[in-house]
Design a protein that fits this description.
This protein is α+β, with helices and mostly antiparallel strands and about 375 residues long. Helix content is about 50%, strand content about 15%. The chain binds flavin-adenine dinucleotide.
């Protein structure tokens, strides 16, 4: 096992950090807790693509950069260290990049071109008000009518939803719980509506409710036929869990950086608080938690790069990394004392931003149940 970054990865990350400090930090500061307008989000995502962020994952023959999973993880970590909001939008770009191969011909090329040039934003709609952990409860329905499907239903918690020009929609085509689910491409022009959800954190990017009321879509927009959609999504999204873990850990790293600085500067009882054993031990624990979470996520991504089975490792890295990240940011708040809860310091923002990662991409409870099922062969979901 090689734990060293290659020279190329090191150069890429150094350049990306510099870019984030110069270009991204002022933007996220300006829009703290406010939605970044879509035009500015587009420009920022376009600029970050030069480093391989987002659709960089696409193969070179398709116009991407063929960035490997480990490097994608390192980039998402650095990005989230600067702004978890920008990292969420980049993650959706990455997922769209993985799923775009299922857009039917002849429209695939035009979507590909627009996604690569960030002319159009996409989103992925699976969750619903009554279908979260139990995705087979999806009710959003596509009913055949001549050459079209007519779609009715609601999607919930859709990252990039408000920004989106199109959605890859998981819809129900018949009553079979799994076999009835298919994936269809719906364009904003077909008539879906979005409304942004106000949240405790991550409000600088869009998380939306998406509504379909008699939305008419040509049958030729079907991406994955009923029956194969769940498997396709499972395979395509498998590599996203360690990325979410690294995004949470990026926030934790930023909180740790702040805590180190603060504990060196802040003096109580005649010395810097870093000189008090309980604070020093906290710093030691926080750094260890970030490192352990990172190693597990990067190991998972390395399995993805080698084409090896990574589902168990992905579930482990998702729950462990996001839990460690939340613990670390909570301790960072404690180290900052009263200042930690003020908006003058960045910790309270991080505290609110990191928490949703324990829920998104499959809750941490569901990850643990998946690991248990894989190891024992017994399903404890029901
Ligand atoms: C910031 C954010 C972004 C998101 N982005 C997207 C997106 O882009 N696209 C999309 O489709 N979805 C998205 N989601 C939705 C996300 O995938 C769901 O929130 C998640 O799957 C959980 O569903 P739920 O919120 O309905 O919770 P529920 O499923 O209702 O769960 C509630 C609680 O019950 C627990 N629970 C549920 N079932 C079991 C069980 N069998 N055993 C033990 N405990 C159980 C859960 O772990 C949780 O603690 C996003 C969510 C968030 C927070």
């Amino acid at each position: 096992m090689d734990f060293q970054l290659s020279e190329q990865q090191q150069l890429l990350l150094d350049g990306f950090r510099k870019f984030l400090n110069q270009e991204a930090k002022p933007l996220v500061k300006r829009y703290r807790d406010q939605l970044i307008p879509v035009s500015e989000m587009r420009s920022m995502q376009r600029a970050m693509q030069d480093f391989g962020v987002g659709t960089g994952v696409l193969e070179e023959r398709l116009g991407g950069m063929g960035v490997d999973a480990v490097t994608t993880g390192l980039l998402q970590f650095e990005l989230s260290r600067c702004s978890p909001d920008l990292a969420v939008t980049a993650l959706i770009q990455n997922i769209i990049g993985k799923l775009i191969q299922y857009v039917p011909e002849p429209m695939r090329q035009s979507y590909l071109d627009d996604v690569l040039s960030v002319q159009r934003f996409g989103c992925v709609g699976m969750s619903e008000p009554d279908a979260g952990s139990q995705i087979t409860a999806v009710r959003c329905r596509a009913v055949e009518d001549g050459d079209d499907y007519v779609i009715n239903g609601e999607k919930m918690w859709i990252s990039n939803g408000g920004y989106s020009d199109f959605i890859f929609l998981l819809a129900r085509f018949n009553d079979d719980p799994v076999g009835g689910l298919g994936l269809i491409l719906v364009d904003r022009d077909h008539g879906y509506r979005t409304s942004d959800i106000s949240k405790m954190g991550l409000n600088s990017q869009s998380t939306a409710q998406v509504s379909f009321q008699d939305v008419r879509v040509p049958k030729s927009n079907l991406m994955v036929a009923p029956g194969a959609a769940m498997k396709t999504l499972l395979i395509s999204l498998g590599g996203s869990r360690p990325l979410v873990s690294l995004m949470a850990l990026g926030v934790a790293q930023a909180a740790l950086d702040e805590s180190i600085r603060y504990s060196q500067d802040r003096r109580q009882h005649g010395k810097p608080i870093a000189g008090h054993q309980l604070i020093s031990a906290k710093i030691g624990e926080m750094a260890t938690k970030v490192e352990a979470g990172k190693l597990l996520a990067l190991k998972t991504l390395s399995l993805v790069d080698q084409g090896e089975r990574a589902d168990i490792s992905a579930a482990m890295s998702k729950w462990f990394g996001t839990q460690m990240a939340c613990d670390v940011v909570s301790e960072a708040m404690q180290i900052h004392g009263g200042n930690g809860i003020t908006t003058e310091y960045p910790i309270e923002y991080m505290y609110r931003a990191v928490r949703p990662f324990m829920v998104t991409e499959g809750t941490n409870e569901i990850q643990k149940l998946s690991i248990g099922r894989a190891l024992t062969g017994i399903d404890a979901f029901g």
